[in-house]
Amino acid sequence: MEQHDPSDDDIAESIEGQAEETRRRARVFRRPVELITDAELSPHQRRLKRERIYVILQIIRVPLLLLAMLVWALWGLWWLAAIIFVVSIPLPGVAVVLANEKGTKRDHRQQSTYKPAAARMHHNQLRQAQALEPPPPKEVEQGPEVIDADPDPATPDHPTDPRKDDTP
Questions:
Q1: Nearest partner of 81 among 67, 63, 92, 91, judged by Cα
Q2: pLDDT of 83
Q3: Chain mean pLDDT for the chain
Q4: Residue among 144, 160, 164 nearest 152 (CA)
Q5: Which single residue of 51, 77, 115, 145 has CA 20 to 30 Å from 86?
Q6: Torsion 49-52-54-57 (CA) sign
Q7: Under-50 pLDDT residues of the chain
Q8: For the chain, how long is the longest CA-to-CA vector?
Q9: What is the pLDDT of residue 25?
Q10: Burial class of 158 by CB neighbour count within 10 A (0 to 12, 13 to 18, 19+)
């Protein structure tokens, strides 16, 4: 009986298979990563996050509609079915609004303070600076240039009208 020695190709395939299995397990069982920097998410990461939220909200709508139908058909609880249905109605709109979100959100680690006295002082300084500036010169508004056509000689206002008597 002849024993088969594993060849290098078999060993390489085995190692690749184990590595792929490890990577797959790592994706499924990820631990949350601690934030150690003040860096914001990249635009690509923000877009992926918005896409995930959009897909989740769109996917949730179909089971809610099915649940509303089942509640009504099996138990006859039309009021509960109506509530579930009404909750599912705005989900597509909310998903679109969240997916189209722009800009970055404020860092929650920073303290948000509003100083009304400082804001009033700043606005007063702006008003005083504007009051000291001379007003911009007013431009004379000229309407569009009117080009008069030659008057029709048949009209009574025409100076060469034979019906008009200009003699004293």
A1: 67
A2: 95
A3: 76
A4: 160
A5: 51
A6: negative
A7: 1
A8: 145
A9: 65
A10: middle
Find how far residue 15's CA is from the centre of its chain. 46
Tokens of 69: 């139908």
Retrieve residue 58's tokens.
């769109």
39-65 tens-digit pLDDT: 777 788 888 999 999 999 999 999 999
94-122: burial string, b at 16+ Cβ within 10 Å, e else: ebeeebeeeeeeeeeeeeeeeeeeeeeee
Q: Tell me what pLDDT residue 130 has.
A: 83
- For residue 158, what are its two tokens? 């025409």
DSSP-assigned letter for residue 104: -
143/129 Cα distance (integer angstroms)? 34
Question: Rounded to an integer, what distance in angstroms lies between the CA atom of residue 20 and that of residue 16?
Answer: 6
Residues ≥6 apart with Cβ < 8 Å to 132 = none
Q: Amino acid identity, residue 75?
A: W
pLDDT value at position 94? 92
pLDDT score of 77: 94
The candidate with the shortest Cα–Cα distance to 69, out of 92, 56, 55, 88, is: 88
